[in-house]
Design brief:
Chain lengths: 538, 133, 348, 283
């Protein structure tokens, strides 16, 4: 979310999910919305039934793409040239919102100079999309009074992820499509409480509410509240922690409810890192691939067994309620942390999750007015919610951007880290499918979901299938410079020739053995969407 | 049978979902009609949200590696060993050699507590979660 | 008037309190969040009975739960392999405030679960049940029970039925259990007179005039039977379906189910029955991945054909009760009303 | 409303023991089963064409057609091709192991109507299993009209029910012909599709009933051939295979338009099937 933070000042959906229904034009880029965020897709389709138009930018012909008015099937990793070309066309056609640019933004000339250097024909060549299509999309988006851009991990999981996001923000600001109801830029969060985990400061560089650890005022505020001196150096990121290898910086880890042995790139490296720890503690509800390597595994309670809050993509903080007591001897993660912390010599004594939330509200300004009693009797509150009288914020940046003025940060094309070559001629894209969720620890244990989609499939273009002698259902050996898996092929023209697509939900087919560890320099997001592979029929 | 409103865990949309409790078991899931996101429907994952909760694979007691194998132990043994090891390594390295991964599937309160424990008890900012994955 | 009674509104709660002594009481309650659901009432005093809004759940899951254990099994590998049915207690239950759509749906399920074979699990739940109906004075925005011909008023199938006449309810019975309640608690009931009956008819007339949409279900059913639904309609629908199964799950008459084993220990397990949707591709997929139905193209079609064509041909009535619950919930923006309108060539 | 509670649980299987496992070929095994409850085993009866719901521990249930003859009381033969999780688990079971059985279910072959006709049986692979039940029942009943059996396998080593085929081949009044898709060393019989055998048979369509069972591709080819020969749709009988859960006409997994295979089938005449949208017939 570094991209949006530098341009708007706040890295979150600017709209509510429901507002999308009232948009006139929707640009969906790097998001397989109908499979990964069905409720957002529902709003997009509803808007279309009311006459709104849909532009989809995706290398694959997803269901979204099939229903789109304009589908730009770009080459993976070429989002920046495509978006820049759209902006150039908008400038050329006088569709930019000059007043908005003047009143609400800064560094427009920086962007403009860069855009004027663009050769549109070159863009068409790089992206593999005909200029006419880009032009049509630019005009459609540029002319809309209320336009929404939805993006997801297809934008961020690139080496140029931050640039991708900045380009999207530039496009929105150039046309004045932010700061209004039903209009904005909406990053869709992949997991149910990613937004909350970020808000809560489960990040190496910030305290709750994005207060930087290396800024003395913020740190002192937390030192006073927590009665203890706090470290001022930002810590290590997930990738630095899990990919240190044998000589990594860590000797001990505590992993709570995560499964890096399936979700992280270059699994072999993760395994090496974890196996070389002196001590690995895991708390989870199932014995995940990660937990199986731990020294101590603590049984955690599922979401049905605890009370607390989640924050969804639209910044809505809402209650999770205990339905049954923790199964067997399992305990909630909160109880586990409190006891562990006490044994570490730092007592934590909260009588309930509500008390924890009271402390959060005091320390995290955007959660300032959020206490459980207010969340109990409502459908939740959307941050920022500064105090108990504040009604919450359905859409962000009204009157002014969080950072004051929106900043145009020109983004330039950076090719993917690894592209197909003679040895590894196919480009592998990874992502999600509708019936499964993340590393599958939960959905793989749902019989009905597994009946519908119980195994990994590799989407392969029929032409490629014919060349390789592979038919639907055949096993394919797929290898990259980092590893090898076997996977069942599914021939479909949803992928373009030369590209293949599969998912990371299935531990029998750990696709992240293959993915590259290249990552965005700013956000540390791994490049899951692109790596080069070689295919052969088994 | 009782229906308790909670929030779905299967994506960032955050649907309002009723879990149906019957004699200590979660036996069904259904959408909230007036919830602003779910609006009376769930995706296929949400409709089957209850299915994993009582799966026999659920961990129900602490495990500790003994002679190379994860072996059931009681909470006290698991906790005191965990606290000793984490504490020792944190102290020896001034927090630099311990790392914590929090979870995008845990609650805000739990995420808050974990980062607080990391910073206040283990004196480290080595805390992250898989926001980017 | 013979067999018609008056219950003062003030006396409803006291009557329910009496009835609750012998029955498990299920009624539409509005919860703190504002949703109205059929809910089992533990304590009458702290609940908000909501007879103004349609409950978001039907009675389906009370008789045919989303997930249930048919039996448990043990020691499958040895000769002490055993199947045991968990005997479930079923106290007499009273369902209050059941609208004509939901009542008709229960009557439909009674047939499904007893016609070809008698389903002991359904029938066990269904027996010892009293259904207290509530005629619909004001159909809701998505309702079309006038088109499915089972509402807004119904005159059979209930034990007791209430019609709201403003300050009082007109009470009728259609089965002996209802008559029994009136006899046992006669202090709550006064004989109705001609004015009351006229008032009921007036309420019916007004309710009939309040439907916000005209749904030409009969015409659509005829076109389906004559195979006159344009292929473009099916294509549009199949493109819209996002495979959530929600329409089937929320439908009070969709009764497809699946059965599977769940291993609960090394030597034991449960056989579980749970809701299924004919729109899922796994519904018809056979071992070896052969699927005789193309979900992508035909998933929705078979559901609509079942409801509007096959059941129509068999019973001369659709197996849709017009409750409107599936309307506006589809991720792709389709539902049975939209289908009917498309089939009839109307622009929705 | 009161309904008497059925004392017998519709869905609860009865325990049955595997008495014998006959390996028919690499893909097909025949399981000889007997109910553990002797009284039930004694009284159990069924008709050719019916199927049983077979429970395999932890794998659920699947419908399997009965390949034995009602006259051979005391055991039930179920011939099973390895196709999915349940059948694979069943294939791993051995003599003495336990399974659960419910049934018999489904509409059987019209045995009375068959009695007065010439009978043509055309089967491919596992498709011979339900027909085996009919053939042996007819023979045991002293069927006095002509019987023709055409059986196709992929390879000679895939030929199942070899004992039956041998004995039918030696029975007077029975013409039993085999063919394989691919020959193997030592095979001197026919090679080619089962439809190729038609030329060797004397058939009187008006006097005959044809019973066809096998993979969809074969069925389509055979139906075309039968139509060419002048068989009326009403005289062509086949069985349909569908995913099933309840087996008793409630769950609707096995629907074909308004018909349920478990209750209205699995035996259908071509005349009945042509009124339905059946994928197997359309290709």
């Amino acid at each position: 979310m570094a991209g949006l933070a530098t341009t708007f000042g706040s890295g979150a959906m600017t709209n509510s999910i429901n507002e999308i229904e009232n948009a006139q034009v929707m640009l969906v880029i790097g998001s397989n919305t109908s499979e990964a965020h069905p409720q957002v897709a529902r709003r997009i389709f509803a808007a279309m039934d009311r006459g709104a138009r849909l532009i989809v930018v995706d290398p694959r012909r997803t269901l979204m793409a099939k229903r789109a008015d304009i589908h730009l099937a770009l080459r993976p990793g070429t989002d920046i040239p495509l978006l820049n070309a759209m902006m150039r066309i908008i400038l050329d056609d006088n569709l930019a919102d000059d007043l908005f640019i003047e009143m609400r933004t800064e560094n427009f000339y920086g962007l403009r100079d860069m855009l004027f250097r663009i050769d549109l024909d070159e863009t068409a060549r790089i992206t593999g999309v005909e200029l006419a299509g880009i032009r049509a999309a630019a005009r459609l988006y540029g002319r809309a009074q209320k336009a929404v851009i939805c993006y997801c991990l297809g934008i961020t999981q690139h080496v140029c992820g931050t640039g991708n996001v900045q380009a999207i923000a530039n496009l929105a600001m150039l046309t004045g499509n932010v700061e209004k109801e039903d209009t904005g830029v909406d990053p869709l969060r992949g997991q149910n409480n990613v937004q909350g985990a970020c808000d809560m400061g489960a990040l190496p560089n910030v305290f709750p509410s994005y207060q930087q650890v290396d800024i003395d005022d913020f740190r002192e505020k937390f030192e006073r509240a927590w009665h203890v001196p706090l470290p001022s150096q930002p810590g290590l990121t997930l990738m630095e922690m899990t990919h240190g290898g044998k000589d990594g910086p860590l000797k001990a880890m505590f992993i709570m409810g995560e499964n890096p042995m399936l979700s992280d790139p270059v699994i072999a490296r993760v395994r090496e890192t974890l196996d070389n720890l002196e001590f690995l503690l895991v708390a989870d509800i199932f014995l995940t691939e990660t937990a199986a390597r731990a020294h101590v595994v603590l049984p955690a309670a599922s979401f049905a067994e605890k009370t607390g809050t989640f924050t969804n993509s639209e910044r809505r903080v809402q209650m999770v309620r205990r339905v049954i007591p923790p199964l067997g001897q399992s305990r909630t993660d909160a109880d586990i942390i409190m006891e562990l912390s006490g044994r570490l010599g730092y007592a934590m004594d909260y009588e309930s999750p509500a008390e924890i939330m009271e402390e959060i509200a005091m320390l995290a300004p955007i959660y300032g007015g959020m206490q459980h009693d207010r969340l109990e009797n409502s459908w939740g509150l959307q941050w920022p919610c500064w105090d108990r009288s504040h009604p919450g914020t359905p859409f962000l940046h009204k009157y002014y951007f969080t950072r004051g003025k929106g900043r145009f940060v020109p983004a330039e094309y950076k090719p993917p880290d690894e592209l197909p070559d003679d040895d590894y001629p196919f480009l592998l894209i990874t992502g999600r499918i509708y019936h499964q969720y993340h590393t599958g620890t939960m959905t793989r244990r749902s019989a009905q979901l597994c009946r519908e989609a119980g195994e990994a499939l590799l989407q392969l273009h029929p032409e490629d299938g014919r060349r390789l002698g592979v038919r639907s259902g055949d096993l394919v050996r797929m290898r990259s410079r980092r590893g090898e898996v076997q996977v069942k092929a599914q021939l479909t023209d949803a992928v373009q020739a030369g590209e293949v697509y599969t998912t990371f939900h299935f531990s029998e087919m750990p696709i992240n053995l293959l993915t590259s560890s290249a990552r965005d320099h700013f956000s540390q997001c791994p490049e899951y969407k692109i790596c080069a592979v070689h295919l052969a029929k088994v | 049978m009782h229906d308790i409103l909670t929030t779905c865990v299967y994506c960032g949309c955050g649907c309002g979902v009723y879990l149906h409790e019957r004699r200590g078991q979660v036996v069904g899931s259904s959408p909230s009609r007036n919830h602003p996101v779910s609006r009376n429907n769930l995706c296929v994952k949400g409709w089957h949200l209850h299915e994993f909760i009582h799966h026999p694979d659920r961990l129900t007691q602490p495990l500790m590696r003994k002679n190379g194998r994860l072996t059931p132990v009681d909470w006290d043994e698991a906790m005191s060993y965990a606290a000793r090891e984490l504490g020792r390594i944190a102290t020896e390295s001034d927090g630099k050699a311990v790392g914590l991964l929090s979870s995008a599937k845990c609650t805000n309160e739990e995420n808050y507590l974990l980062q607080k424990m990391a910073r206040a008890a283990l004196h480290t900012n080595n805390i992250d979660h898989c926001a980017r994955l | 008037m013979k067999d018609k009674y008056i219950l003062k509104k003030d006396h409803l709660l006291p009557l329910l309190r009496k009835l609750k002594k012998k029955h498990r009481l299920i009624a539409p309650l509005q919860n703190l969040h504002g949703d109205t659901l059929f809910t089992e009432i533990d304590q009458l005093d702290n609940v908000r009975l909501d007879l103004a809004n349609q409950p978001q759940n039907s009675l389906k899951r009370f008789f045919f739960p989303q997930q249930e254990v048919l039996f448990t099994y043990r020691n499958p590998t040895s000769d002490s392999y055993r199947f045991e049915t968990a005997a479930e207690e079923r106290p007499p239950s009273l369902y209050f405030g059941v609208r004509p759509c939901d009542l008709s749906a229960v009557l439909y399920m009674d047939v499904v679960f007893s016609k070809n074979a008698r389903d002991p699990h359904y029938l066990h739940r269904r027996q010892n049940t009293i259904l207290v109906g509530l005629n619909c004075n004001a159909p809701f925005a998505n309702c079309f029970c006038n088109a499915t011909r089972n509402g807004p008023f119904i005159d059979f199938g209930f034990d007791l039925q209430l019609t709201d006449l403003g300050d009082r309810f007109l009470v009728e019975f259609d089965r002996s259990q209802g008559q029994e309640i009136i006899r046992e608690w006669q202090q709550f009931f006064a004989a109705a007179d001609e004015t009351d009956v006229k008032a009921q008819y007036q309420a019916f007339l007004e309710a009939r005039g309040r439907f916000s949409q005209q749904v030409h279900l009969d015409l659509a059913a005829r076109r389906l039977a004559d195979d006159q639904v344009p292929e473009s309609v099916w294509q549009d629908l199949s493109m819209r379906c996002q495979d959530c199964g929600g329409c089937a799950y929320i439908c009070p008459t969709c009764t497809c189910f699946t059965i599977r084993d769940r291993q609960t220990g090394d030597h034991e397990g449960e056989r579980i029955r749970s809701w299924d949707a004919c729109t899922f591709s796994g519904f018809t997929r056979m071992a070896g991945d052969h699927n005789p139905v193309d979900r992508q193209m035909r998933g929705i079609e078979k559901r609509f054909r079942h409801k509007l064509q096959f059941d129509m041909e068999k019973d001369n009535r659709p197996s849709c009760v017009g409750c409107g619950r599936c309307v506006n919930i589809c991720f792709g923006g389709t539902d049975i009303v939209l289908f009917i309108k498309m089939t009839c060539g109307e622009n929705p | 409303m009161t309904m008497p509670n059925s004392p017998k649980d519709l869905y609860r299987p009865r325990r049955a023991e595997i008495r014998e496992v006959i390996v028919e070929n690499s893909q097909i095994k025949t399981f000889v089963l007997a109910f553990v409850d002797r009284a039930h085993n004694g009284s159990f009866t069924y008709q050719p064409g019916q199927f049983m719901m077979v429970s395999v521990p932890h794998c659920g249930e699947a419908p399997i057609s009965i390949s034995s003859t009602p006259a051979d009381s005391g055991t039930i033969h179920l011939s099973v091709r390895r196709a999915g999780i349940l059948t694979a688990a069943l294939h791993d079971m051995k003599q003495g192991d336990m399974v659960g059985l419910r049934g018999p279910y489904g509409r059987p072959f019209p045995m009375t109507a068959l009695a007065g006709s010439d009978l043509l049986f055309v089967a491919g692979g596992i498709g011979l299993a339900p027909l085996r039940s009919v053939i042996n029942t007819c023979l045991a009943a002293g069927h006095d009209r002509r019987i023709t059996i055409l059986y196709g396998s992929r390879t000679p080593s895939d030929i199942a029910f070899q004992g039956d085929l041998a004995s039918w081949g030696q029975t007077a009044g029975v013409n039993c012909l085999l063919t394989v898709d691919r020959s193997e060393p030592g095979w001197e019989g026919e090679v080619g599709l089962v439809t190729g055998l038609f030329a060797q048979c004397a058939l009187e369509p008006d006097e005959s009933k044809a019973l066809v069972c096998g993979p969809p591709m074969m069925i389509r080819a055979v139906l075309a051939q039968l139509a060419d020969r002048g068989f009326a749709d009403g005289n062509i009988i086949t069985t349909m295979e569908r995913h099933m859960k309840c087996g008793v006409g409630i769950c609707r997994h096995c629907h074909m338009d308004d018909k349920l295979v478990c209750k209205d089938g699995p035996v259908f005449t071509l005349e009945e099937l042509k009124r339905l949208k059946v994928m197997e017939l359309r290709g």
